[in-house]
Design brief:
- This protein is mostly helical.
- It is built from eight helices and four strands.
- Strands 1-2 form a two-stranded antiparallel sheet. Strands 3-4 form a two-stranded parallel ribbon.
């Protein structure tokens, strides 16, 4: 049922939000010259996939987890996109393709060894990664890998259609938060 919800929401989301996506893309051309950001991430069953987002940092920024990145690398448009979570919208494509879900553990980077090991121990890789989830609405980021893996495991065990929509609405209305860059 959740996969069906993912398909319907991501399909219609991409269609109805296409004007907004085009506007952000256009302004991103002037902000960084390269409005989309592609990064290899770890998904379900530890399969690698390419996550797509709107770029919020300068193009020359190292590929690190956000909590390790320097906040001075975030562009003015990027600050707005992060605050409003609009930088996440291109991931609807990843959801439509089945690489992600709207709700699930945020996909980690290959260089986040502690997080990968903790997620293996807690069985987190049994579920598709998500755009938002229990950790995000509780402001738990990738800087605490063991806690994050525990919260992710709880999300997977307790995920229902009700909690799926609850986490989506909580994120849309300001409760969710991604990884913060270093100040």
């Amino acid at each position: 049922m959740i996969r069906l919800c993912d398909l319907v929401i991501s399909f219609f989301g991409l269609i109805f939000l296409s004007p907004l996506l085009a506007i952000i893309f256009f302004f991103g051309l002037f902000d960084t010259g390269s409005p989309l950001f592609f990064q290899e991430r770890i998904g379900r069953n530890e399969r690698l996939f390419i996550l797509v987002k709107f770029r919020t940092m300068r193009k020359d920024t190292a590929s690190l987890a956000s909590h390790l990145a320097d906040s001075s690398a975030i562009t003015p448009l990027g600050q707005f996109l992060r605050k409003t979570k609009l930088d996440e919208l291109p991931q609807l494509w990843n959801v439509l393709k089945g690489e992600m879900s709207l709700v699930g553990p945020r996909p980690g980077l290959l260089n986040q060894i502690d997080l990968i090991e903790a997620r293996r121990r807690h069985g987190v890789f049994s579920a598709p990664p998500g755009i938002t989830g229990l950790a995000q609405i509780n402001k738990i980021d990738m800087s605490t890998p063991e806690l994050l893996a525990e919260i992710d495991a709880n999300l997977i065990q307790e995920l229902s259609v009700y909690s799926y929509f609850k986490y989506i609405f909580m994120t849309i209305f300001g409760k969710g938060q991604g990884d913060a860059a270093n100040r």
